[in-house]
Sequence to fold (278 residues):
Amino acid sequence: MPLLKIRDVNIHYRVLGDRGPWLALITGGRRGFNEFIPLAEKIAAHGVRVVLHDRRNTGASDILIEGRDGEEEIWTDDLYELLGRLEARPAVVGGASSGARTSILTYLRHPDAVRALFLMRLTGGEFAAGRLPEMYYGQFIKAAREGGMAAVCATEQYQERIAANPANRERLMRMDPKRYIEVMSSWLAIFTRGPVAPMYGVTEAQLASIRVPSICIPGNDKTHSMSHGRAIQRLIPGSSLFELPLEDQDLPLVPFPEWAPHEEAIARVCADFVKKNS
Fold:
């Protein structure tokens, strides 16, 4: 599998397409990029080069629980370096859920790397604020307190990361649980210090400061509601809205693979947007 050493971490990545403008596409949650391969293939078929990567601490990339910045800010710096190594800057940057948030943060931290923003399944509201901090950080801090790093490794999410990259188990087991708790607690504090709505973790002033072409595709669940997606779009100057023929579901999360019937439409809109803004 293709790997690049980015800021002391092996980053697993893949480029789909061999011609055309560049699009960096970032998955949501802590999931690896595999769930985006079908969509990326469809976009690439329209003449766009799509970069997928497993962010550090996700998928088959290395785990490194260190850093003074928030985890998502660290991801933006990794992406900036990755795009530079691929000679892909500036690129259109986009993603879903935490990938959309990371895309916006990449623009805010590295505006020279971002031509435009392609944002899907935008996160906001009290339900998301009550769910995500525990899902991303709280449960693992608790595991480390109760059972050390062995308990962290035994959690479902870390089991997936170890299966994808077996060396991650040794990296985790070498870590002092106290240090793990310290870093994860710091990341949790940073993750929860921003606003809840309309977009989780991104202020209205930051949204209003965006000066690149942007398109928003709202989600349809309690974490990524249609109403919050529309409200976020209205705050980004000059942005456009593309709505799929969906209704909000009374569910915490509609998994991205359930959007498969709409991938052709998303791919066409995305490819047209990338070409127009490259």
